Amino acid sequence: xxxxxxxxxxxKDADRPWAELLEDLADVPGIVFVFAAGDxxxxxxxxxxYDKITGLRRTPxxxxxxxxxxxxxxxxxxxRKVLSRYSAQE
Length: 90
What we know:
Blueprint: E1 2-4, H1 17-24, E2 30-37, H2 50-54, E3 62-66, E4 69-75, H3 77-89
Parallel strand pairs: 1-2
Antiparallel strand pairs: 2-4, 3-4
């Protein structure tokens, strides 16, 4: 299993290849960590724009919003299947 906690920069296209690991390595359990600062002109969950940061059109698999910051995890398809098996056993 791989875990990627990359430096995302300031919404630069050059940072987005990190998110491509989710599709390039979809058959291997993997997780990408993403951090988002909030947009002060917005309220609630809408103020965190993960699509702009990552270039991904899907929502994070796990997300924790905390005031002006948000933290999220994106799983590969394989990781999602593995983790769903464990959560089903609980």
